[in-house]
Every structure is written in C-alpha cells, then in structure tokens.
Write a structure and sequence with these properties.
single chain, mainly beta, five-stranded antiparallel beta sheet
Length: 476
C-alpha cells in the first residue's frame, strides 16, 4: 500500500514522496477469539499525485512491492455437534426359534437303535433290555430294520400284522432312553426301541397312530430335552425305523411333545407337536400323507408344517403338552393343549378344521403351576372325543371332561401317592369306548394303569420298566 505525505512546514512548498510499505501481519484465527490487527498511524489526507517539476527527481521511483492485504478476520461459527439419533431398543427375542421356511442343512438325527425283543409275559419287559438306575441298556446288535424276533407266544405272529389297538411307554430323562411297544388287548410286549441311541438320556414322549396308511398303528417318538426337537417314526407292522425329522429350529434343544390324529380329515393320521420347555408354546401339525406319500417310505429330515401357531402367550416358555381328538364329530381331529410348568393349568381346544378356539378353561385350581398333561378320546361311544387331564406334579389326579364340564376325577395311585402323572386314551378292548392309560411321573415306581373311565375300575396294571427305575414314564 502506497501513502503520500506532504509537509506543510517548509517555506517553499515542497512535496516529498514518501513510500511506506506496511507489512501484513496475519494473526491466526482460533475460531473463538477476535484477531488483533497491527497498529497503524492515522493517515493524513491524501492528495493527488504531484505533477513533474524541476525539483522532483528525474529518476524513476522504484516499483512498488506487491500489495499484501490483510484478510479480514474470519470468525468461525462453532459447528453444533451432530445429532445422534438413539435407535429404538431392540425387540426381545422370540420365545421360540422360528420354523425354517426353506430347506436348510441340518445335523443328521441322533443314531437310532431298533432292538428286537422277544415277547415275554404280558406287560413285563425282558430283564436284560430294560432300564435300571445303574446299568445302561446294552448296545443293540446290528439290524437291517427287519422284523423283530418272534416270540414263542402263539399270539405274537398275528399281533404284529393285525390292525389292533397299540400303546407305547417311554422313559423320561435321566437314563438311556427306551420305548416299549405293546399290543392293546393282550398287553403283550411287541418290541423295544432305543430311538436316539444308547447314549441319549433326554427321555422319549410317545404316541401311536397310523401315519403310514397301512391300517396298523405306528410309533411316533419325540425326543426329550437336550437332543434337539427330533421326531422319529417306527413302522407298526415291520418295526422298521422310518427316519426322523426336526419339528422346530435346529438350534432349539427343548425337545418335542407329540400326539397323533387325523387333523385335516383326509383319512390319514397326522403328527401334532408341541415345543418343550425353553421355547414358546409353539404347536405344529405335520400332514401324514406329506410325511409318507407311500407306505414304508422314509421321512425327510426337513418338513414344513401344515399348521403352526402359539397356543398361549408367545412369551410363555414352560412348554406345551398336546393331544388330538375329534371333540365335535366333524371328522377332523381337534388339537388339545395343556400349559407346561410355571403356567396355570390352562387347557385349550383348537378346531382341526378351522383353527379357531373351541374351549379354554383351567383344569385344576388356578394357583397350580406344575403343568397339565392332556389326552383325548371317545370315552362313552357317542362319536365325540372327551378330554382327559393329569397334573404333572404332586399326587396324581386324573380328570375327564366333556367340553368344559367335569365328568370324573380319579386318584390313580391312591391318596397322597405319586409325583404327577402322564395320560393317554386308547380303546384297548375295541368295544367303541376308550379306556384311560395313566403312567407315573418321576420318583415313583414305574407303573402303568389302564382303567375304566366311568367306574375307575382298573383293567390292567403293570410295571413299565424295572421297579428300581424311578425316572418317570410317558404313555401314548
């Protein structure tokens, strides 16, 4: 910047060109403080450049250096912090892992051991193949899934090939899992299975029904907790292992409860499953014809259910017991559910045809939270199924209902005896009126009783396993 100064004190007016170069001083800005400009003297009034005279020097003034202008101070406006949106809290996990909607690789099912058993006296399993608290079941010999060894009992051969009532008894958790398969009218032991290998101790939940379409009741076995929700099927005529499928997500290890009935009314029994404890009260129905399009076919490990729903609040994780029976006589087996432990004694009946809730009631006192087991069958021969319940803990009390009306109550093992019970319904004598089967829970002699649902009279009572086994039984 060039400034001109004039002196007014000299006698002869003389103009002196003074050039002052102001150095630019740049004060760095902090963004928060005002920069301080360099001090300058107040400039005198500027005049026009002097005209050339004889008194001015004839030499050209030196070129002015480039003008360095001090930029105006920059005041940085503080940038507000970015707005961080707080995401909504994550949803709680589903009480039960969802069922896959497309085939995914799964682990192979646990090893199955089909143990041929020679039929002994009615209702008494052979000593060398039953469970004891200290001795595991010996490994089964190699088998080609052929017929079991025939019994010297003359009735053994026709029993296997006739469409007769059957029932199964399975061990509960704590010992190597075993299932005994019986002829209904005689009580003869037909064979014994180790459905998930000799090393599995989670127990077996059992049901019987013709899912293969050959007219003979097959054995359906759900794995107990600890081994995944596998369901294995054995052919009732040949005792062949027809394979196993996962009822729920491969990561779910709570096991599966099972029941059998013709839910869709197509003439073939379907398999009903309920999730064990640890998952939500998830109920599913698997179509029998889809599982076994031809008799003797093996079931695939992955299956899509025909029906799938939660019987109770999805947040309930006590498990759900299941049964199937045609309560309204429309030709469709309805699905019966009982809440597991930690829930109230809540029983529901879902229409097999429409899925709507037919009935919903408490089978026992509302304060009872031990779980309620369920069964269904035609007890009076009117063509409609009645409901049967048993408390899962405490002295066993078996009850029968028509819809929600209480019909009978039985103290199966005597007053104050027993630690819960498991129930099933089967027309043992083929007279059109089903009988009630009850089995003991844990910490009691492993007993099965079959009795008249009207009088309570015992028709048959026998040990399901050796007397020193007290792990509890399931019957179906």
């Amino acid at each position: 910047m060039v400034r001109q100064w004039s002196s007014h004190n000299a006698a002869p007016v003389r103009r002196i060109l003074r050039v002052e170069i102001l150095e630019a001083r740049t004060v760095p800005s902090t963004g928060t403080e005002e920069p301080v400009p360099p001090p300058v003297e107040p400039p005198p009034a500027e005049t026009a450049p002097p005209a050339p005279t004889s008194e001015t020097t004839t030499s050209e003034p030196p070129p002015a250096p480039p003008v360095v202008e001090t930029p105006p101070p920059v005041v940085e406006t503080p940038t507000p912090p970015p707005v961080v949106e707080t995401p909504p809290p994550p949803l709680p996990p589903a009480p039960e892992p969802p069922t896959p909607t497309a085939p995914t690789p799964v682990q192979p099912p646990p090893e199955s051991t089909n143990t041929p058993t020679v039929t002994g006296s009615p209702g008494a399993p052979p000593v060398d193949t039953v469970i004891t608290p200290t001795t595991p079941i010996p490994p089964a010999p190699p088998t080609t899934n052929g017929p079991a060894a025939e019994s010297p009992n003359p009735a053994a051969q026709p029993l296997r090939t006739q469409p007769r009532p059957r029932y199964a008894v399975g061990s509960d958790a704590g010992q190597p899992t075993q299932v005994n398969y019986y002829d209904g009218p005689t009580g003869s032991l037909l064979t014994t299975f180790q459905p998930f290998g000799a090393g599995f101790t989670g127990g077996a939940r059992v049901a019987t029904g013709d899912v293969t379409g050959d007219g003979i009741e097959d054995v359906i076995i759900g794995a107990g907790p600890g081994g995944g929700a596998w369901v294995r099927v054995y052919d009732g005529k040949t005792f062949a292992d027809l394979g196993a499928f996962l009822a729920y997500n491969p990561g779910f290890s709570g096991g599966a409860l099972v029941a059998v009935g013709d839910v869709d009314g197509d003439g073939r029994a379907d398999i009903v499953t309920g999730a064990g404890a640890g998952g939500g009260p998830h109920v599913q129905v698997f179509n029998g014809k889809a599982l076994f399009p031809t008799p003797g076919a093996s079931v695939a490990a992955f299956q899509l259910p025909a029906q799938s729903y939660f019987a109770y609040n999805p947040g309930f994780t006590g498990g759900v017991f299941v049964a199937a029976g045609d309560t309204d006589g429309d030709g469709h087996a309805d699905v019966v559910t009982g809440a597991g432990a930690t829930g109230g004694p809540h029983v529901k009946v879902f229409s097999g045809h429409t899925g709507e809730v037919f009935f919903s009631f408490f089978a026992y006192d509302a304060a009872y939270t031990g779980g309620v087991l369920v069964a269904a069958g035609d007890l009076d021969g009117d063509g409609k199924a009645e409901l049967v319940t048993a408390n899962n803990t405490g002295p066993t009390r078996v009850q029968s209902f028509r819809d929600t009306t209480l019909l009978n109550t039985f103290t199966v093992w005597g007053n104050g005896r027993g630690t819960g019970g498991r129930v099933a319904v089967e027309d043992i004598d083929k007279n059109g009126k089903a009988e009630i089967l009850a089995a003991t829970g844990p910490d009691y002699f492993p007993t099965v009783k079959i009795f008249n649902p009207n009088s309570g009279e015992a028709i048959r009572e026998f040990p399901g396993f050796m007397q020193n086994y007290t792990g509890g039984l399931f019957v179906g």
